[in-house]
Design a protein that fits this description.
The structure is a single chain. The protein is of the alpha+beta class and 168 residues long. It contains five helices and eight strands, in the order αβαβββαβββααβ. β5 and β6 (113-117) form a beta hairpin.
Length: 168
């Protein structure tokens, strides 16, 4: 009598385990969201190379946030364009970018500007102050960060040029 019940459980348990596994796997994958199935978009390296030509690159990094299952890689250049203060550096950078076909999309004030290029339609470019670096969501290696922040009179002349994928 007891033996019959044990044999019956042995037949039921593998089927139940299989059913529970089939039920849990889709639920587990759904709970992971888009983390497993991300795609990556980034700007063309030729566009970054073109922008590097407006001055000396002091440091370079990336920000790579994930939006709706897509990693959007922004190339960030910290540049010295040979100016004595930020306003001058901003104007010099704008002028040199205009010479390369970039136009102001918005801004263009004393602190920042958004630019587009007919040549690089899938890229949006932002110029800003080095002191606003944290707003870009990127990090620098500690040694580089320390050097860049050690002389505020010099770092105040740097511009940040960030190139992001343009999804429009």
């Amino acid at each position: 009598m007891f033996r019959g019940r044990v044999d019956g459980l042995r037949r039921i348990l593998p089927t139940t385990k299989l059913f529970l596994a089939a039920l849990c796997v889709p639920l587990a994958l759904a709970g992971c969201g888009t983390q497993w199935f991300t795609r990556r978009i980034e700007v063309d390296t030729a566009a970054v190379d073109e922008v590097r030509g407006i001055g000396g690159v002091v440091a370079q990094t990336v920000a790579d946030p994930v939006y709706e299952g897509t990693v959007e890689v922004t190339a960030i250049l910290i540049m010295d364009v040979g100016a004595g203060r930020f306003k001058e550096a901003h104007d010099v950078a704008l002028g040199r970018l205009r010479q390369r076909g970039w136009t102001i999309a918005s801004g263009g004030d004393a602190d920042s500007a958004l630019m587009k290029s007919a040549k690089w339609k899938d890229v949006i470019l932002r110029i800003g102050r080095f002191r606003d670096f944290e707003e870009y969501g990127a990090t620098l290696e500690p040694k580089i960060d320390k050097v860049l922040h050690s002389d505020s009179s010099k770092s105040d002349t740097y511009v940040i040029v960030a190139l992001s994928p343009n999804k429009e």
